[in-house]
Amino acid sequence: MNRRALLLVNRHARRGKEALAQAVSKLQELGIDLQEESTEKPKQLPDIIRRWSDRVDLVIIGGGDGTLNAAVDGIVDTQLPLGILPLGTANDLARTLAIPQALDEACQVIANGKQQRIDLGWVNGKHFFNVASLGLSVQITKQLTKEIKQRWGVLAYAVTAIRVVGRSRPFLAEIRSNGESIKVKTVQIAVGNGRYYGGGMTIAEDATINDQRLDLYSLEIERAWEIIPLLPAMKQGQQGDLPGVRTLQSQEIEVYTNKRRPINTDGEITTYTPAKFRLIPQALSIFVPG
């Protein structure tokens, strides 16, 4: 008996339009019956998933990290296993899970049926897969337009960072975790659940998406441009070895700032400080390569 899948595709994703027909054909060839739904409003995705929960066996989402972030609450509520078609710009969750970028191969991963339970991060009631952050990354998110993504692809993150880094200023924050309170002057605080974020940056050298911990780093530098020499280490997740970078690991973290600051989860601005972060262990199942 064929498995029944709800297919949700972000047609505005970098490879959305041209890839949809290819994915549908391949998935059907592999024995998956598809029920396709679409919406122009990503916030509606959780309700769509909930509506279909008793009529399908799995959810397949085609899009990038932002689309997955928009849908995650519905997946958690229904506990339907998740298949990923990486159609976005960065596809950091797919990269973390070693899901192939080639669409036919990603369809094969779903059809093969191997599932892995993964952790999720949670901040102020919002789940996230990869990283939640405040500071410089939020400014990058605000400037990262659809046109820049279409033109530069995964390099769009670096291009946009170069544009905004000169305008970024340090801010004061208090980090509470593991029974300690630390006051910092920082340009960015990032809290990671997965491994990759921001187009292939690494949150910590040994981070995985099922290690049951959150990894925090704080860039405590005087001028935002000083991040540039740190980038090679941040690409490898080795920033904790450098002066001016604070790191810690925990399952619960609180961040307070003097003024309300926006927080970016998986590349989308979804909440504000004060922020309470929690790890949700083994929160959902995803199809991964065998």
TrEMBL record:
Residues 1-127 form the DAGKc domain. Its cofactor is Mg(2+). It comes from the Bacteria. Transmembrane segments: none annotated. Its EC number is 2.7.1.-. Keywords: ATP-binding, Kinase, Lipid biosynthesis, Lipid metabolism, Magnesium, Metal-binding, Nucleotide-binding, Phospholipid biosynthesis, Phospholipid metabolism, Transferase. This is Lipid kinase. It comes from Funiculus sociatus GB2-A5. The lineage of its organism: Bacteria, Bacillati, Cyanobacteriota, Cyanophyceae, Coleofasciculales.
